[in-house]
From TrEMBL:
InterPro entries according to UniProt: 6-PGluconate_DH-like_C_sf, 6PGD_dom2, Mannitol_DH/Oxidoreductase, Mannitol_DH_C, Mannitol_DH_N, NAD(P)-bd_dom_sf
Protein's name according to its UniProt entry: Mannitol dehydrogenase
One Pfam family cited in the UniProt record for this chain: Mannitol_dh
Keywords: Oxidoreductase
Organism: Paenibacillus antibioticophila
All residue ranges annotated as the Mannitol dehydrogenase C-terminal domain in the record: 320-500
Domain Mannitol dehydrogenase N-terminal: 41-308
Amino acid sequence: MLRLSLNHISDTSAWTAAGVELPRFDIAQVKRNTRSKPEWVHFGAGNIFRGFVANAHQKLLDSGKADTGIIAAESFDFEMIDKVYKPYDNLTLLVLMNARGEFQKKVVASIVESITADKYREADYDRLIEIFEHPSLQMASFTITEKGYSLTGPDGHFLGIVEKDMEAGPVQPIHVMSIVASLAYRRYLKGRYPMTFVSMDNCSHNGDKLKHAVLTIAREWAKRGLVEPGFINYLEDERNISFPLSMIDKITPRPSETVQAALLEQGVGEMDVIVTSKNTYTAPFVNAEISEYLVIEDKFTNGRPRLEEAGIIFTDRDTVNKVETMKVTTCLNPLHTALAVSGCLLGFTLIADEMKDDTLRRFVETIGYTEGLPVVVDPGILNPKQFLDEVLQERFSNPFIPDTPQRIATDTSQKVGIRFGETIKSYIRREDLDPAELTAIPLAIAAWCRYLLGVDDEGQRLALSPDPLLETLQGHLAGVKLGDKVSGVRAILEDENIFGVPLYAIGLGEKIERMFYEMLEGPGDVRTTLEKYLK
């Protein structure tokens, strides 16, 4: 039985027989190099880091274009290090899956050190400080989710742990952004060395969010006299510290039991799925789609890995924004949200299964090709039509990517203004286009309103995904049942804070209301309404 460890991967013939590609570099030497000359630390030890970012760096190591590895630092779920990294010598078995069911298997060994950003684990924290005090450090990158950068709660006030950090100073930080600010301060004190902080999280203007969070904490410390005033100048001077924007796109879902079984059948053991106490689903393997995009603003102050030779795109800030706009407002995210809310209503539990449904496929094709492409922002480095083709023909249709509409439906109130509102704004701006002529986008909004009722298309109770506005939104629909002709849905549609546009003033409000009430008539009428408008 093959096991994922440094000792076991030395038996190259057995792994090759199992169809697994092995690292082609001297892992021990790279580990020594990294120990003495750290260049890259990454916060957020989850799947997209292991299955995309680390794999890209491995390509450089395999080809001799890099000689140090990545140090993984986990600031949220320390069990990731204890249960997924350490027991497997920091190795990951990456399984890439295409829609035809073909698996590409590879051992990723570019992560040569793993530590926790836990102040109570002194050896780990001392190592983090040592890394940040070293002149060789080029960058710290992040995949900590958008929430990781947030310093405030829904009420706009600082979180309790952030307030404690601001009062205590950089000595014993708790929040991840306070930890980062504290480590940056250690670097400043050691020698004012330059470096770059790169957010690779899937959120708009990610680098700006990271910069704002770090600077907010640093300024509060400076106000209290807890750091030297020059620290703020150091962080704000882009000759020293930079926070480039990036756009990342790759689906790395929870570990698939199908993949786990296939690995076992091929002789790879100890591939158990692990659920941590913080409800992280992980495993020694990462299953992921083949498609991947990472576009980064090329603004680095102390050098960087030659990741462009591993498929990463480096460009200017404006182009990163255009790529993100293309993806988020026309060619991927709006389609995902439409499938999410309609899929939940119609009883689907896999996005790939929805793509086998002629009506739902026509739904997202209309949003993408018919309504999105006429106003798409062409970034110049990626062709929008080809990107959309790949999304619909390969990515969403891939049955081996266990992505669910229920996951994607999370926080929809925070998304619809970008995913649909931006396209509507483009129609408003164009003299040759009329937003009132849109069909599939208003249909998606109507489906979301119908979803908020918490009743599926068969009239059964439907568990809704988490959303910060869920209580308020459901309050507008309190007491509404199938067959009703009156509801408070207008209050939802009139909320410009949600949609970013005045839906009624542009002729879409009444249209969406009409679609909503048609979906509300009785069991089966969500599907009937979709079919009616998508003929």
